[in-house]
Fold these 2 entries.
Entry 1:
Amino acid sequence: LHWQQVLRNVQAGYVTSIELDELYAKEADGNLQALEVLAWIYAKGIGVEPDLIRSFSFYKKAAELDVSGAAENAVKVYRAMSAAQKAELAQ
């Protein structure tokens, strides 16, 4: 898929293993948009099981790379975590 089609699919809530593989490949190549999209889909559970720990990790990485809004989103995800999830982060 072309990158713009992947983004349109994600926006439409359509995330399959094809879109997910493309997102991970782009993120591995340093694509900051892919990093943010991965954080978002894991926070919302779009095409994947919701995973706030994984979402937080992606947002934290994006914040470290000075992506606008990523630090604020990391805080929001952290606040939504259970005490057990926060404890898991501390390990």
Note: The radius of gyration is 13 Å.
Entry 2:
Amino acid sequence: MPKASGAVLLVDDVPSIRNLLARYLEKEGFETFQAEDGIDALVKLRDTLPKVIVTDLQMPRISGWEFIDVARRRFPTLPIVALSGSIPREFPAEVKPDRWFEKSMKRFPDLVQAICYLAQETPR
């Protein structure tokens, strides 16, 4: 698979998870920038529009669900990948991510592959 290019926004309230995922993605050729929660992410989206957003669902201040809802309204074509300790069976249509993964080191290779695919499909 060719090296990726473009930016990925990582949104998670756990710095070690953001940093670990950033290392995986940077090895694939992505630039990454990080936000500690949905509010921080919305501020950062004012300055930089990534190819893909990866967000935790359980965060303080505003949840990942709320963040996805706002991001979907502002950037309807921007791919969003959700991470969570437990994935719900159904997502409401307005906050349904393009992909979702359980937060697990074992899933990181699949997660990175999904991000690479979504980034290639994003027309920016």
Note: The helical segments are 15-27, 38-45, 64-74, 108-121.
